[in-house]
Amino acid sequence: MSKRSIRPPILAAAALFASVASVWAQDAPLPDREGPRPETTNGVPHIQLGIEPVPELTEAMLEHVEKLPGVTLGATRVSLPGAVGFQLDRNISLANPDAIVGGREFAHVHPDGSLHASLEPELARAAVNAGWATPHPWADQRPGWGGFVMIYTPTTQEELDVVLQLVRASYTYVTGRPVP
Questions:
Q1: Per the domain annotation, does 102 fall within a domain?
Q2: Reported confidence tier of residue 16, pLDDT bands at 50, 70, 90
Q3: C-beta separation of 139 from 45 below 8 A
Q4: Phi/psi at 138 (nearest 5 deg)?
Q5: 58 in any annotated domain
Q6: Nearest to residue 44, comparing CAs of 154, 141, 166, 153?
Q7: pLDDT, tens digit, for every residue of 49-69?
Q8: Residue 151: strand pairing partners
Q9: Which one, of 122, 123, 112, lies nearest residue 41 by Cα?
Q10: By the 8 A CB rule, do 61 and 83 touch?
Q11: Which residues lie closer than 8 Å to 142 by C-beta, 6 or more apart?
């Protein structure tokens, strides 16, 4: 057997492994968040109270999100002025279109560094239970919004790593695509 005939199956296996590993990493159990939960408002606008963002972490988050396939950062369509929307390009199909709150925005980050995102409902419950998120006040108002949560502002690199895990999971839930 020549190297040429072996290479395509090996490449296909490597691509499959990378895809499975990506999904597996997104499904990794969430660690418990340390410290008290930030206070939030009970209505809309749904915001955190008394939290100072770490601009470098917010910038790192945006740099990461901007690299997701088919995502464009821009002014939010559904949140406060100054929030940045994570918009899906028109060529990205939606596996869970009801989970999107407005337009093709699957999540957005507020000026305080917190985010609203649509997660698979079981993951949303796990994020709430582990102290990373709180349900949006409207989460039970419409079909598909059962996993709509506010993810708290990351204040350390370790917290940002978990927040990015949740953002990638939101992308995967809404699009049906694992993050490469």
A1: yes
A2: very low
A3: no
A4: -100, 10
A5: yes
A6: 141
A7: 888 899 999 999 999 999 999
A8: 115, 133
A9: 112
A10: no
A11: 98
Residue at 180 is within a domain = no
Tell me, yes or no, if the pTM score tops 0.85.
no
Structure token pair of residue 154: 């990351």
Closest Cα partner for 42 from 146, 152, 166, 134?
Answer: 134
Domains identified in the chain, total number: 1
The sign of the CA dihedral 50, 75, 147, 162 is: negative
Please, are residues 65 and 167 in contact by the beta-carbon 8 Å criterion?
Answer: yes
Mean pLDDT across the stretch 141-158?
91
Identify the bridge partners of residue 39 per DSSP, sorted by sequence position: 49
The model's pLDDT over 99-109, given as tens digits with 9 standing for 90+, comes to 998 889 999 99
Residue-number span of the structural domain to which 88 is assigned: 3-175
- pLDDT of the residue at 164: 97
Q: Are 100 and 76 in contact (CB under 8 A)?
A: no
Q: How crowded is residue 49: how many other Cβ atoms within 10 Å of its Cβ? A: 9
- pLDDT of residue 9 exceeding 50, the answer is no
* CATH number assigned to the domain comprising residue 125: 3.90.1150.30
Assess contact for 44 and 79: CB atoms under 8 A: no
- Residue 72 burial (CB count, 10 A): 13
More confident residue, 169 or 26: 169
**Stretch (H or E) spanning 106:** strand 105-109
